[in-house]
Specification:
Blueprint lengths: L10 H24 L5 H23 L10 H21 L5 H8 L2 H12 L7 H18 L8 H26 L7 H22 L11 H26 L4 H6 L3 H14 L7 H16 L2
Length: 297
């Protein structure tokens, strides 16, 4: 059964998106903590594996069938491979470029979503205000994270390109989910494709990348950080995200994702003592203005 479509975001959708962005920003801190004991790509694979088990149990309790034939297999497999490759490229690219540069390149993903939806879904064609809003919000990200940006050397250029490709994959996954048979299946099944494929592919990618795997004897805090990612992020928040994009315009939702790195910066400062750049205040204003422009009627 195809879910009811909305042409604009209502209060529920906007509240959920702000909450999800805050949770994803906090996840950046949890991942950094867990990195001290579990290599990043392996960590992402373990997260997907644990969340897959949770999702299967939750779906069984809800009476949602995950394995019946409905014609979504090819699109689901493609979405899962894009999801796994995206994370592998992000973590691999961070070996070559800085975190600030990575954020700027990664958050070109909403433009991929907007362009894809503009070309493939007539009801979600970009307006001038939406284009200006996306550029405004992206300008906020550059302002917040771009204080150390400069022309890249050869090594940084490789990392920048990896992050740019991962952004394209992130955006392409959203468009794929919205424009194929996946749009008509339950959010549970859509998420299962991505978690299941990445649970198998990311540990293999970790080996190919030469990661150390589990480092020493991880502390309880590291395991708690991983558990948080499994339960709150990869299971609960991603399920909510797929529920949202099955019902609301993807471009309007994606504009909110610019809040995530700003929340990450705030949580990093509050919990890890990280430095806040001078441009954070202006960045928040630009991102908020951009979201308003994208979503105004």
């Amino acid at each position: 059964m195809t879910p009811q479509r909305h042409t604009h975001l209502d209060a529920l959708a906007m509240t959920l998106m702000i909450g999800l962005c805050a949770l994803w920003g906090l996840n950046q801190v949890a991942a950094k903590v867990a990195n001290a004991g579990i290599s990043p790509v392996l960590q992402a694979g373990l997260r997907s594996a644990g969340s897959t088990l949770l999702l299967m149990g939750w779906s069984r309790w809800q009476g949602i069938r995950l394995f019946e034939s409905d014609g979504s297999g090819r699109a689901g497999l493609a979405a899962g491979l894009l999801f796994a490759a995206e994370f592998a490229l992000i973590f691999w690219g961070l070996e070559y470029t800085t975190a600030s540069r990575a954020v700027v390149f990664l958050y070109t993903a909403p433009f991929v979503v907007a362009l894809g939806m503009h070309l493939l879904v007539p009801a979600e064609r970009l307006t001038r205000n939406q284009t200006v809003g996306l550029l405004c919000a992206f300008g906020g990200i550059v302002l917040a994270f771009g204080d150390n940006l400069s022309l890249p050397d050869r090594r940084q250029l490789v990392g920048d390109l990896m992050l740019l490709v991962s952004a394209v994959m992130w955006g392409a996954t959203t468009v794929l989910v919205r424009t194929t048979r996946l749009a008509a299946v339950s959010p549970n099944k859509t998420l299962l494709y991505q978690l299941g494929v990445s649970a198998l592919a990311l540990p293999v990618a970790s080996l190919l990348l030469g990661e150390k795997g589990v480092i020493g004897e991880p502390s309880a805090l590291i395991w708690v950080s991983l558990a948080w990612q499994i339960v709150a992020v990869a299971f609960a928040s991603y399920l909510a995200w797929f529920w949202l994009i099955s019902r609301y315009p993807a471009t309007r939702l994606s504009a909110f994702s610019f809040l995530t790195p700003l929340f990450g910066m705030l949580f990093g400062a509050a919990l890890l003592g990280e430095r806040i750049t001078w441009g954070l205040g202006g960045a928040m204003v630009l991102v908020a203005a951009g979201i308003w422009l994208v979503n105004r009627k």
